[in-house]
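Replying to the earlier thread about multi-chain prediction with a worked example.

Input:
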Amino acid sequence: MRRSRAFSFPAVAFSSLTWVILLSAAAVIFVPIAFMAGASLMNSADIMQMPYGWLPRSPKWANFLQALAGNDGQWIFPRNILNSLVVSLSIAASTVFLSALTGYGLAKFRFRGRNTVFMGIMATMMIPFETVMIPLYIIIVRLGLQNSYGGLILPFLMNAFGVFLMRQYLLSFPSEMLDAARIDGCSEPRIFFSIVFKNAGPAAATLAILAFRQQWDNLLWPLLVAQSEEMKTIPAYIVKFAAEKSSDEGAMMAVAAIASLPVFALFLTLSKYFLGGASVYSAGKE
Amino acid sequence: MKRMAALAAFAIFAASAFAQAPVIPELKGKAMEITIWTHEDPNRVPIEQRYIAEFMAANPSVKVTYVTYPSAKIREIITTGFAANQGPDIFNLELFDEYPFITNGRVAPVDFKMAGSKDLKDLESKYLPGMLTSVIDGGKAYGLPVELTNWCVYLNKKIFRDAGLDPDKDWPKTWEDVMAVSEKLVKRDGQIITRRGFDFRYPYYLTSIVPMVEQLGGELVSRDGKAILNDAAWLKVLQYFKDFGPNGKNLGSPTYTDARKLFDNDKNEIAMSLSGLYQEARMKNANPAFYNSKDWMVIPFPQWKDAKKKVPNNYYGHYYMVNAQSPKIEQQASWALLSYMLSHGQEYLEKVAIVQPMKALMESATLKAMPYSDVFVKDMNAAHMVYYGASSSKIDAMLKEAFESVMLAGVEPQKALDKLRKDVTAALAEQ
Amino acid sequence: MNKGRSGESLERKTARWGWFFVAPGVLFFSAFSLYPILNAFWTSFFNKKLLSLKPPKFIGLDNYGKVLSSPDFWNSVGATAIFAAGAFVPMFLLSLLFAVLVTSRTRWRRGIQMALYSPAVLSSVVAALIWLLMFDPRGLANQMANALMRTPGIDHKWLADATMVRISTIVVYVWKYVGYFTILFVTGIGKIPQSVNEAAVIDGANAFQRFFRITLPLLKPTTVLVSVMILIQCLKTFSTQYLFTQRGAPLGPINVLTLNIYNTALRDQNLGRASVMAVLLFAFMLLLSWTQIRFSRSGELES
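Result:
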């Protein structure tokens, strides 16, 4: 559907101003990322050059080799990337599923204690992770899950914001459809899977990316739980690499670039769902 | 005869290629897993992994997992592990971070038999005098040192010559010299320093800055437990930092890249930096051309012109310790393994340039052959161990805050000192 | 089978199913959120040291007294407040502005949104690495600031000066998350029926009138939600401050509560006192979001 527009002078001026603001904001925001990309191919002296050169004079691909192989030549980084993918993808999947389940329960059923449950879950958003880190670690240790994917994943299986998002989305989901299914003799779990979950696509995609991104970012927890090099995730590798080789900024930026590539690739391919954010809500209204 | 010789030669070759770790009869057939958590060190890690492989080959029932963590994080990780009663069997930290593990009863005493000694006296006799004192409590030793380090000043002669100085004559002997020479060496673009003369190692205030105070007769903690003695000494050092920093003569600051890391690059960025003997091994790896050139040297830790006594940079130690909650047999295995690892003092010295404070090693040709090792040894003989106590990590952070508030935030030295005294006194009272 | 002709019985029946669907979530949050925070609350009354094997002693409100009378705690409260306020205002205004501008465009919409969002995709460790290099006195931040302000050779002391280091953490934070909140606003604006806007256009309302009379009031639920989220995020900030202080920035000005809690627990090993701060921070955040929601009388968070 196309909006009719009046091509008056103020409208044109307004439109160009909008573009100026948006494009300059995008450019400014993009500077550090461009810096990372350029610096990953420079030697450290050029990175600290005044004035800064932006483009590498002759691309130093050796930075990437060093980043991947590590200073000890053990090639552990690819494995760490894989770990990050496994952990973040599992958490994205479980967050979507469990949040949909809980969100559905909260949105479409009236039961005693519903508000308490909802407010309680919302309140957990206010817990700073650093404050619960130690009791959480003790739980994981008791379960014998340290140094395993289980230990990395379990405390983040779902989160309060996911529940909130799913509940909001499902509140506007037509109840008549559910009732119709009930009258047709559909079991409740089947209603959830074949009607609700199936139609949660746009909200699920948004939530999946949020959960994925959050987990990709996680440093503190994997550092505590992953005790062998093989179980570490990308942020832990970066901190380690930076500590070992602090003066070689080029290789450090190469590590940063490699660490960002998979998530950027995912971001680019899934951006359709993601940035069609408006559809999350409109889909439920049809 | 010839065949015998060939066989013997082969045996020697084999022995050197696959060094034989001792077979520990007590461990025979007892399956167990030993975990070691230690900090990253690109030169040390490979040799320790080799010792462990050798130990496992000789004692196949023992499986050892060796994990390294970034040095900036390891204290938190080990502490959390122990808090959950899931600490590693073996770990090491800087002594002042390890000390609370002893006072809280979290670490097991050295098993003398497994560690290859008769008793405490025998064990102590292998080390330089006093080197185990800090880990001895009630007749038991709670750790074995893997490294004892003091810092001296590495100096880039090329940069000195470039600034019209003669490194052999003009190297700084006093802190006043350091400031004066730095002013000649420094290069800036506007206010921004592109080449520093000297710069400190900032987060390590206990190790490096407290000695400057002590040279002037000041003290951090007195024998009777009072904090911050001799204001004049403290104020002079605080003022020095104010003058040195960006609001004074602008010669250096904690926010520039670490001086010692830039030093190895030899890219005309830093003329002098503080580091230990181990820096030589890193330099050799990172920049062999510079290492082999005659363009660098090591000079003693500077002293004040009107110093009351000579106090070189403190030395600090990393001690391997064993978890008291590990089963007895694993503790024994741990000490046996550590004893085997640490018996390679020569190789630690050659490959990593870290010094175990053992008598035999200090007199070894290997140490003497290392460039400028005499400078380090001479300084070390006059130095003492860095302050350690139940609150040392916290006090280190307080020193950082005091000095950096003066250096960077323009706080008056007297004000910073009053706050420091109050904070340290409170920290000591809480122990 | 009874097909539930009466609404009541259907409701009672489905109410049980409500619990069924909610149960996994309730279990999860009880184990991994409720238990740890209750644990912290319990610990806050004990003289608990992290490494000690002795059973901790009950000391009542002693920890609370010590924390509330310590200047260090109040410094952290100040640092947190300055950071939260300093990051909240630009974050909120910019993300709202960007969202309104983005939704007024039809072309390149996705490209712009992606560019704005891209920093949020980077991990904080990567972001800190990049910014630490840029904030180096010889780095890009000084060069760009000097080029813009025509002040060659000035060192703005991004990580050294007490005020600047506060600004630097805010810059990194806003940079990283502004795109994320923009998307939330875009979503909220998308919820506003096009017809309302179109009617206004026909009535001759200009863009500003449309924004203040239509978009903003109709956006209120989103506005409340986003502002609560920004505030919570800001109060929970940790990694930027942590990584900056690790690289030599002065602790005092950016010693936010989370960082103080972390240091008190792991450096000073005083779990009791760290728990006090954790409980206070948690309670404060609850209170703040509650008032914010009540005050705006939004139906968004209630059923």
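Chain A touches chain B at residues 44-45, 48, 50, 71-72, 133-134, 137-138, 141, 146, 223-224, 227-229, 239-240, 242-244, 246-247 (CB under 8 Å).

Feel free to reuse this layout for your own posts.
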